Amino acid sequence: MANLLFFFLISVSQFLYATSNKSPEPFVVYLGSINSNKDENSYTLQASHLQMLSNIIPSEEKERVSLIHSYSNAFKGFSAMLTEEKAALLSGEDAVVSVFRDQHLQLHTTRSWDFIESELGLGSLKFHQRFPKDVIIGLVDTGIWPESPSFADAGMGEIPSRWKGVCMEGIDFKKSDCNKKLIGARYYGNQPSSIHLPSNGTKTTPQGSPRDDVGHGTHTASTAAGAMVLNASYYGLAHGAAKGGSPSSRLAMYKACSIGGCAGSAVLKAIDDAVSDGVDIISISIGMSSMFQSDFLSDPIAIGAFHANQKGVLVVCSGGNDGPDPYTVINAAPWILTVAASSIDRSFQSSIVLGNGNVIKGIGINFSNLTHSASYPLVFGGHAAAQGTPASEASNCYPGSLDSRKTKGKIIVCVDNDPTVTRKIKKLVAQDAQTKGLILIDEVEKGVAFDSGSYPFSEVGDKAGVQILKYINSTKNPVATILPTVDVNGYKPAPIVAYFSSRGPGGLTEGILKPDVMAPGVSILAAAIPSNEIGAVPDGKKPSNFGIKSGTSMACPHVTGAAAFIRSSHPRWSPSIIRSALMTTATAWSNIGKPLTNSSGANANLHDTGAGEISPMKALRPGLVYETTTEDYLYFLCYYGYKEQVISAMAGTKFSCPKNSSPELITNLNYPSISVARIDGTKNTVSVTRTVTNVGPGNSTYSVTVEAPSGFIVRVSPEKLAFSKRWMKASYQVSFDVKGASKGYGFGSLTWSDGAHIVRSGFAVNVL
């Protein structure tokens, strides 16, 4: 613990030093939208960026006039090494929208599609092959492993002529590694040597490669649009046919991340390039920590996504892994489709056999050689503490806390009372103490299988943990064994909200209900890079082409694949229509026909699940949709409090805000869900307006039903909407009277139906 505190203090002091001295740091300078009325091409914009930088740097320091990235396709701006003083000077320029430090973003780290298709009663996606095969998905991630069978292009037609991207070569990546499935690959350096003034020589090429050396990007890409691979498995586990949500779609990888995370400036450049290259959907399974959220104009993903949306490109983002606390959801701008994570109906069972004959069904992925025929001494970590170490630290498997003379050859039982010590660290500590295996008691993480490779490992909840500890205390010579993992399908209930999935309401505004939808993100099988880690590959096996990962990172590409599936059937639908279709058709029920629950077994609410688990087949024919336009988003920025000059720069044209702009009006954004940030329960009634568009048959009439929490009086006017033709619009108003309601958030829904379509919108109302 002392070591952890020491390193924390060192890190803090380094941070304070870095932010207080006058040495240059990477900053992003955002200049707004491309003005189509002016002669602004990438070359002239790049030159103007260099000139702007040159104007603030003294002549004796001209060698520092260089850009890390220049943004000149979907929006204007650049990133460069600046002191705080120079950054402040630039922020005062009329042409500058915002200047912010280049932020460090985090990676948000097969039966899942079968579960979505059939186990929830949603039909089959197999007939999608008849749809056009020209949807292009761009992923901003850690790169790609092109040799994976998930990226084979057998049966795919010619690359769409509208594609303008490239396949960049690198030290271990050739142009021939791209094909008709993987049609593009870029990578980004983040050193300030990419672009210089002409007098300093020609532009240099960033060092690196589009190849994935982490595994994150390969996994997400195959989840979204991987080709069908028969007999896929992870060393025999999760055996079956692996495929992405839209196997007919094309993939383009934009490598902006490494094992240490992602530079915000590189992510922004990747989005800028992806839009210019011609992608239809961008999938981003990364984001900043919920503890350090920036406003919308200091968030590189929010800025890039806004301009992608402007150009008709849907951006799907993971909501973060900081759950289950509220106010942790990120990537929550209203122009982003924000995704929460859920489980599927499969578990990885690693049974524990106690000496008294009891068998406890734990969770974990291990490929050990232990069997029923031999048992090993069982010891609790707190009883095996090293000299001078508190029992509480040993019971948590802290580094250096165990006495190997007391643990050698034994199976150790540890608890998880301290989230700073991860399961991987506990495993390494146990191995270092020469134990035979590890049983971890952890109520929170028990539902997300930890991969321990060949080392025997199993994880149980508190109830089973009490059984194990009682057994240890009941005999002088407790023994046990941990069996290798088997996978169990048909688990119920499912889906369940993953404990790690970040929750709403949004930290920047509660006027938009986030996350938007939920999708599988627990123990997902998808393509992997070959592993050379000692102990990760079972004895006698070759590295697997597939891996099992968990996180909202894994949920995000499920929604991306579903969106591509819808786009292939409805190529003219806007990003907001596709989002609306996924939201209003999502299911709020599990595979046992009961309301969705969270990992603790309690009923989940809309801040946990968003609209619910995606139902791609239903989303093909949503009946009615809520279309949110760029103008709507600009009004949102007005209501949020940004100045007209800034909003006009983002719009690329003169834009005027309503005179009565205020944060309370955000709730009136034409969004598929409703969130009222605050309402006085003693006197106020709040009314909200929405407009729907008929994308179903003409001559249809929809009636509304309302589900409201106790104490709420919710009225909808009118109660019926009649449409005489497709693409006809109609508006309605919802009023919330909460005089009899309890304080805090209340959740409910309103559902429009014509007998054939069900259009459900959730609402969250905060009663003060």
UniProtKB/TrEMBL annotation:
Residues 193-218 are annotated as: Disordered. It comes from the Eukaryota. One of its GO terms (molecular function) is serine-type endopeptidase activity. Residues 1-18 form the signal peptide. Residues 133-597 form the Peptidase S8/S53 domain. InterPro entries: Peptidase_S8/S53_dom, Peptidase_S8/S53_dom_sf, Peptidase_S8_Ser-AS, Peptidase_S8_subtilisin-rel, Peptidases_S8_3, S8pro/Inhibitor_I9, S8pro/Inhibitor_I9_sf, SBT. Residues 668-765 form the Subtilisin-like protease fibronectin type-III domain. Gene3D superfamilies: 2.60.40.2310, 3.50.30.30, Peptidase S8 propeptide/proteinase inhibitor I9, Peptidase S8/S53 domain. Residues 193-208 have a biased composition (Polar residues). GO terms for biological process: proteolysis. Coiled coil: none annotated. Keywords: Hydrolase, Protease, Serine protease, Signal. CDD domains: PA_subtilisin_like, Peptidases_S8_3. Residues 27-108 form the Inhibitor I9 domain. The active site is at residues 141, 216, 553. Belongs to the peptidase S8 family. This is CO(2)-response secreted protease. It comes from Dioscorea zingiberensis.
